[in-house]
Amino acid sequence: QVQLQESGPGLVKPSGTLSLTCAVSGGSISSSNWWTWVRQPPGKGLEWIGEIYHSGSANYNPSLMSRVTISVDKSKNQFSLKVTSVTAADTAVYYCASRGEYYCTGGECHLQYYFDYWGQGTLVTVSS
Amino acid sequence: QSALTQPASVSGSPGQSITISCTGTNSDVGGHNYVSWYQHHPGKAPKLMIYDVSNRPSGVSNRFSGSKSGNTASLTISGLQAEDEADYYCSSYTGSSTWVFGGGTKLTVL
Questions:
Q1: Band of pLDDT at residue B27, cut at 50, 70 and 90
Q2: Tell me, what's the pLDDT at A108?
Q3: Chain A: closest CA distance from residue B46 (Å)
Q4: Which of A48, A122, B11, B102 could form a disulfide with B108 if both were Cys (CB 3.0 to 4.6 A apart)?
Q5: How many helices and strands in chain A, by DSSP H and E?
Q6: Structure confidence at residue B86 (pLDDT)
């Protein structure tokens, strides 16, 4: 059973860089999973930020792509998120999650398009 | 990509059934059978309840069911229980390796 735990500063200054890490336990970061970041601004819904595979291949939300970088650290079994030039609009609870590359049921395997493991989230506030 | 549209809140009494809608476009909900639903109790990790429109993961009660018609997906919870009170979010694959979530629905069990 994969477990995910976010960590990082809870307060970031405007125009600064938000940096978070997600520690993976109960499984290897090099397994067939896409490692994902999702955020939830106060009082709003969830927003998919992006994902990365252990190979380094990454996909990003087009609306955030210019400011977001997701990376993998195989030696520490963790992955990270960086958001540059932050504003108050980046204040949110940030979740890490995972999406398997595929799932198998009834003797057949299918590509997986859902997030099956989640961290509990960490609040990041952007304020001076 | 715009967020999927969900009602802000729904409510029901124990034992009743409720349905939460999730409306998107031809590019997301209507274009792919990859809608998933998540239950979220504040302060806890979101939990997968339905995947690929209507499939339930192992361990999820059969009181939860999903469906889709056109650009609108739905989550139905039958036999409402107090423990079902939570926020519910839908998500859809949008193509080009990106995803979109709904704005969330707060379920109150009266």
A1: very high
A2: 92
A3: 6
A4: B11
A5: 0, 13
A6: 98
Tell me how close the Cα of A63 comes to any Cα of chain B, in angstroms: 8
Kindly tell me the burial class for residue A6, based on how many C-beta atoms sit within 10 Å of its own C-beta (0-12, 13-18, 19 or more). buried
From the list B32, B48, B103, the residue facing A116 with the nearest CB is B48
| pLDDT for A83 | 98
- The rounded distance, in Å, linking the Cα atoms of A10 and B98 is 27
Smallest Cβ–Cβ distance between B103 and the set A44, A60, A116 belongs to A44
DSSP A89: G
Contact A113 B98 (CB under 8 A): no
| Token digits of residue A81 | 């998120």
Which of A46, A51, A113 lies nearest to residue B89, judging by beta carbons?
Answer: A46
Res. A5: pLDDT tops 80: yes
